[in-house]
Amino acid sequence: GSEWGKVKALINDRGENLIEASPSQPIEVLGFDSNPLAGDDFIVVDNENGAKKIAEYRSKQKLQKKNTVIETNVDEMFKKISKGEETIICVIIKADVQGSAEAIESSISKLSTEEVKTRVIFKGVGAITESDVALANSSKGFIIGFNVRAIPQAREIAKRDGVDIKYYSIIYELIDDMKNLISGSLKPDLKENITGNVEIREIFSISKIGKIAGCFVKEGNISRNSKIRLLRDNVVIHTGTINSLKRFKEEVKEVKNGYECGVMIENYSDIKINDIIETFEVIETARKL
């Protein structure tokens, strides 16, 4: 702890003043500058100056730890999911009655998908305790409290260890939040939209630069930021991006249907006359349960 002091009195369990105390003897110590916490070690040092320095150091450590932003288990969980490192969401359920706990467990279990699975590792009745928080922390999960609250000690430990506690009194809100939570973890649906069809009609080789494709935009458009596929006899031989898009030697952002342009493909030069450059975009759509 960060408390210190000089012993002013030792009082035993019968209220008697003592000169010294022996091991395992219960005593009350007077003289601390503030109240120490239960479980703190009681250390005797040689002088008052040494006690002050130790207390100051521990006080700074305590303040630094308090000001450190702790990443919660839920934040950490979804970072791992987004990297493909984790596919299981662990949940602890505490409710006011057993029937509610079982109903919530059943509803949450049905929300599992192939990518993200939910697992209820414990369900019970009553207030959220330190052991619930410890279980959530060890399993890297979070706690759902339905019509119950966490006791003060559990709240402190949860705050310290970055364990999320979510409180609910309406089961539909709980399920909706779980759906949103899991939906946010699902990989988005990817839809491809073809935006243009461009035919290579000439090839120009420029020293120190490479090959430039003289093209005609047959359908849609081609833009500087387009993703492209190179087709030869309707077979895809390359997928990539555009390094340069020009019209009359001027760099342009976009060339529309019916116009000619010069295209240089990023890190690729195996192009031939009559090859087709197909431009496309990938549209991400958030998945919902």
What can be said about this structure in brief?
Residues 3-45 form the Elongation factor G-like domain. This protein has 289 residues and is α+β, with helices and mostly antiparallel strands.
Can you tell me about this structure?
The model is unreliable at 66-70 (pLDDT under 50). The chain has three domains: 5-67, no CATH class; 73-183, 3-Layer(aba) Sandwich (Rossmann fold); 189-285, Translation factors (Elongation Factor Tu (Ef-tu), domain 3). The chain is of the alpha+beta class and 289 residues long. A hairpin with a 2-residue loop joins strand 11 and strand 12 (250-251). It is built from six helices and 15 strands. A six-stranded antiparallel β-barrel has the order 8-9-14-11-10-15. It has a four-stranded parallel β-sheet with strand order 5-4-6-7, with helices on both faces. It has helices at residues 48-67, 73-82, 98-109, 130-138, 152-161, 171-183; strands at 5-12, 17-18, 27-32, 88-95, 117-125, 142-146, 165-168, 189-206, 210-223, 227-232, 235-247, 250-251, 254-256, 260-265, 276-285. Helices cover 26% and strands 39% of the residues. Helix 4 (130-138) runs parallel beside helix 5 (152-161). Residues 66-179 form the Translation initiation factor IF- domain. It holds the Pfam family IF-2. Keywords: GTP-binding, Initiation factor, Nucleotide-binding, Protein biosynthesis. Residues 210-273 form the Translation elongation factor EFTu-like domain. Belongs to the TRAFAC class translation factor GTPase superfamily. Classic translation factor GTPase family. IF-2 subfamily.
